[in-house]
Amino acid sequence: MLTKQVVIDQIEVTEHGHVQVRTATRIMEDGVQLSQTYHRHCLSPGDDLAGQDKKVVAIAKAAWTKDVVAKFKERAATT
């Protein structure tokens, strides 16, 4: 039987506070992986977290201190 698994397999925080999320989509047949593809997206400090996985939200909230968000907005204003 073929099944499709979609999992967040990687969450990273960069030095400037961006949260990078990698989602893996796996096609399985009787427990054996036939293929795997990836999708990535990035969240900037202070972005809306609505619709994000609860693990992504928890990591973003931990990483996005008031100082991190303020520095990000300051850098964005000068570019």
Word description of this protein:
The protein has 79 residues and is an alpha+beta fold. The protein has one domain (2-77). It is 28% helix and 44% strand. The protein has two helices and three strands, in the order E-E-E-H-H. The chain has a three-stranded antiparallel β-sheet with strand order 1-2-3. A hairpin with a 5-residue loop joins strand 1 (2-13) and strand 2. The longest helix has 12 residues, at 66-77. The protein is elongated. It starts with a strand and ends with a helix. The mean pLDDT is 96.
Helix/strand layout:
Elements (H helix, E strand, L loop, with lengths): L1 E12 L5 E11 L2 E12 L10 H10 L2 H12 L2
Antiparallel strand pairs: 1-2, 2-3
